[in-house]
Specification:
Elements (H helix, E strand, L loop, with lengths): L12 H14 L2 H9 L9 H5 L2 H14 L10 H20 L8 E7 L6 E6 L2 H18 L16 H13 L4 E6 L3 H4 L2 H9 L5 H12 L2 E3 L2 E3 L12 H18 L3 E5 L2 E6 L2 H18 L10 E3 L9 E3 L7 E3 L1 H16 L6 H19 L6 H23 L2 H10 L4 H8 L5 H6 L1 H6 L2 H6 L5 H5 L2
Parallel strand pairs: 1-4
Antiparallel strand pairs: 1-2, 3-7, 3-8, 4-5, 6-7, 9-10
Helix pairs in contact: 4-6, 9-10, 13-14, 13-15, 16-17
Amino acid sequence: MMNKKQKWTQSGSACSKDKERNSDKVRTGASNITARKEASFSDTTKLMEMVVERNNLKKAYARVVGNKGSAGVDKMTVVELKAHLQKHWQEIRKSLLEGQYKPNPVRGVEIPKPGQKGIRKLGIPTVVDRLIQQAVSQVLVLIFDIDFSDSSYGFREGRGTWMAVKKAQENVRNGKRFVVDIDIEKFFDKVNHDLLMSRIARKVKDKRVLRLIRGFLNAGIMENGVVVARDEGTPQGGPLSPLLSNILLDELDKELERRKLSFCRYADDCNIYVRTKRSGERVMASIKTFLQKRLKLKVNEQKSAVDRPWKRKFLGYSMTFEKNPRLKPAKENIRRFRDKIIEKTRKGRGHNIQRFIQEEVNPLMRGWANYYRLSEVKQVFEELDSWVRRRLRVILWRQWKKPKTRAGKLIQRGIEKERAWKSANNGHGAWWNAGASHMNHALPAILFEKMGLVSLLHQVRC
């Protein structure tokens, strides 16, 4: 749980109030989970009746439809789900209660990993299977979540990245200034089915539910029209996979708690905080052995390390090296943001600049600023704001094209005639001119503000 007496480093009273409001949101996890923890399951032999219960299904249906998502192998969309259920639900319900339901293969999809080489494999279930997985997940979470570690933050209601990041910062503030950064290699592709099912069966005694979960795990992946059998992994893309990953990795959490180690885990990304590099190296070696022997999982050597927290990133955040460290966006994520802006602005050369800002640039700025609103280092956002304006000036410089047009536009915006003509004919490229004084004077920050350009600094309010 978050330490309510902890004081954050601030750069002004406005920032202080904003951060306090933020911290209130971050620390709501415990109260949101309380009601769920009151549930008690002394008998788990009749769970399928709970899965198909009307209110549980209504909640699952709302979640699946709200998430939208792509169609599965049967090409049915979420829009078509309601009509399909009205016609076929009774037979689906009957097969579930009798333990005879057969999940469909998932549709294999490959997407590039953000900011990295390689691809991530997704498995998209049919919408009916997504509904059933969601309904099962809502019942299982009542059984398992109550015993999950307080240091586990991924895929749990009332918890999330902000809570994990703040807890990581608190660990470093408490003097644990080395991090054992563990990344599990291809976790969602390598989960051992038998191990996972044995962990689920410790608490779930309804054989119909166990058979159904095994069916979802073993459902093949359709790739290029061919169904490929699967004997390991829980492909990302289905509502049940996140909970199953937490059930398996809870054993890692319990081991870390048994050793009285300070850690934060979000899915397969686990950071353990220690006081010395030597102790960190011992922890790394022993946890590698534990994962391999107990859970049949392997640590990704390239992505894992024992290092200073400010040299690593956790959930997109890094921190400063002071004794009282401040949060900031990780360098890699800043580069990724820049790449997205570059991609946007390359496509915006022929657009009305104000409309382009509103429709293309601002949504990206707001989303990025919202995720990094815990940041306490304003220089990053000042520099990015300036850089984004320069990218927009590049668009305008290229739109003006000819020296005569450029000179006229500069004169129109208050640049004296001789200087305007000299600038228009300087022979330098668009990026150089976008950063030069004549373009900064002709197109100042306040002009972009009037066009509605979002400021990262004002959104985050460091």
